[in-house]
Amino acid sequence: MEDALKHLYECERSGSPCTLESLAGALESTRDAAARLLSRLQTLELVVPREDGFGLTRAGRRSAIRVLRIHRLWEHYLAQRTDADPTIWHSAADRMEHELTDEQAEELDHRLGRPLFDPHGDPIPSREGTLPPPRGVPLPSLEAGQSAEVTHVEDEPPELFETLVSQGFAPGLGVQVLETGDAGVRLRVAGRERSLDRVTASNVTVEPLPRGVVAGQLPRTLADAALGESVTVRGISPGCRGPRRRRLLDLGIVPGTSIVPELESSVGDPVAYRIRGALIALRREQAAAIEIEPRPPAGDAE
After folding, report:
1. Phi, psi of 29, rounded to the nearest 5 degrees
2. Which among 145, 147, 161, 224 could bridge 209 via Cys, Cβ 3.0 to 4.6 Å?
3. What is the pLDDT of residues 254-272, one digit of tens each?
4. What CA–CA distance (Å, rounded) separates 196 from 175?
């Protein structure tokens, strides 16, 4: 029943009708089973029939938002606090959304710092049921030459999500469209050219950047810095998540932090970096996740 309510709510948010066929498809059940489920939900006054299908009552909408809140909080937890592969976040959250109580969900929300969005960029409902407004436009709607920041990567169907994850797509990623057409989109991502067919590209939502701003270039990282070179952290790569990201943050590696590579091992990996007065060894894969820019001269700090 909770899965059915969640489907009705997602149809409502997207402006598409919820029909027997759409519900049966979402639940991977038969049309008859979906009809029996809808009949039961109507008896419980959670669902009402409409001209174009079915809709939620106020109580039904409240129940659906509760399930959605737990689902997205759990995905955020898996992304930020575990090494779980991104391709299992959704299925794991599908199970946990039916097991956590409201009190457990509130505690989890508090521990996570009350995030507004899950790792895919979907808004997380508050305990009161409010959601941040939707952001962005589909990637294929951009014109050639436009730059944008990824705000959402759809996690269904799993096959398309795996393709996008393997190519480094994640909220916060900068991209530049090189060519767009009926066949798909060719774009620059982190200095590399990528091509997506139109269906896969439509699963990516972006926020266009102002004209003249160019994204998608290969960012310079700490792994590129020479010994003795003083650099400033610009940010951590959007693809660096979970414990890897948290360890870097715990070391004080945040935007504006000054870092100097000082010592190199005999094989060149790891390298010892001067960070906030301490000498800390980072492996190349860790340093490659830290985006940098040259440290401005002291007189230019303002």
Report:
1. -125, 180
2. 147
3. 888 999 999 888 887 889 9
4. 13
